[in-house]
Specification:
304 residues; mainly alpha; globular
Length: 304
């Protein structure tokens, strides 16, 4: 009889999903009640939804693994910096193309609130936006998903953990318009962590992705009206292919090295892995079901 160990990360992820969506529905009322702007609200929301769960899970597992090891807070080696940037650029540009295709297919229009909101801010305000939208999400989300989440299944087959983390990451970020992008980016971030051994690789890549996304949102209308838009498009496409080529070559090189060092998994190790808690739990599938329900309600106009 296989006895699986208790693992709270699925339930914690489900709670995060619920809190993010419920607070999202009432964000205007919450910001008005607290007397804060939307970026301060997002700052507090991330602290509650990610920092508290990270601390809880780290303390929950403190007897079996050190917090620094659990969150993969290993020293980051600078030789991985170029591939972190190139991988993020390639994933971001590819995701933008996919999102544009989905938006055109389902006739979904961008709200355009982000560009106008940032354009009205002074330098100090822009700095706070950078922290709230670019830096903080990159740090806390990666500490949770690439750190805590993946560490909970450290003895499970790696590909299954990456897939489960990617799906959960997508559900927490996703909408019909932005469904493929977080999935692709999550897989890239996980590969970077396994490649470098440090969560800082994913944090850097995620921050680059956020910065590019905010920049694209801000300049989208300006570029669309520019006479040089096709030149800009071709230039960005060229940057994408160069980044993709460099990233794939780097991953291939690392894969060949790891393949030489790889050893066969013994039957005892395989059995121990099967006895570990699987990432595909009831909470995981309930999370997916709730996301599908939310998407259906959005399409029917019942979810504001």
């Amino acid at each position: 009889m296989v006895v699986r160990q208790k693992n709270p990360v699925g339930t914690v992820t489900l709670i995060i999903f619920a809190v993010l969506n419920i607070t999202g529905l009432f964000s205007d009322k919450i910001t008005a009640f607290l007397g804060i702007d939307s970026y301060s609200f997002y700052f507090l929301l991330y602290i509650v939804c990610f920092l508290i769960p990270i601390v809880f899970l780290a303390l929950y597992n403190r007897k079996s693994i050190k917090i620094t090891g659990y969150l993969k807070l290993k020293n980051f080696k600078l030789r991985y910096l170029p591939v972190c940037i190139s991988a993020s650029v390639a994933a971001t540009f590819f995701s933008m193309l996919i999102n544009a295709g989905i938006s055109a297919l389902f006739k979904i229009e961008s709200s355009g609130k982000l560009p106008s909101a940032i354009g009205e801010l002074e330098f100090g305000g822009i700095l706070s936006v950078a922290v709230a939208i670019v830096v903080l999400p990159a740090i806390l989300e990666e500490l949770y998903f690439r750190g805590a989440y993946c560490s909970q299944y450290s003895e499970f087959p790696r590909i299954e953990v990456i897939l489960a983390a990617a799906i959960s990451f997508t559900v927490l970020h996703g909408s019909l318009q932005n469904l493929v992008s977080p999935f692709i980016c999550s897989i890239v971030y996980s590969l970077l962590v396994y490649l470098s051994g440090s969560v800082w690789a994913a944090i850097i890549a995620h921050a680059v992705n956020n910065m590019l996304a905010v920049t694209a949102a801000y300049y989208a209308d300006i570029i669309a009206k520019s006479e040089l838009k096709w030149i800009i498009f071709v230039t960005l496409l060229l940057i994408f292919f160069i980044s993709l080529y460099f990233t794939l070559r780097f991953f291939e090189k690392h894969y060949l090295k790891s393949k030489k060092k790889r050893k066969g998994v013994s039957l005892k190790e395989a059995k121990r892995s099967r006895n570990r808690a699987t990432p595909f739990t009831k909470s995981f599938f309930l999370l997916i079901a709730l996301f599908i329900l939310k998407t259906v309600l959005e399409l029917t106009g019942l979810w504001a």
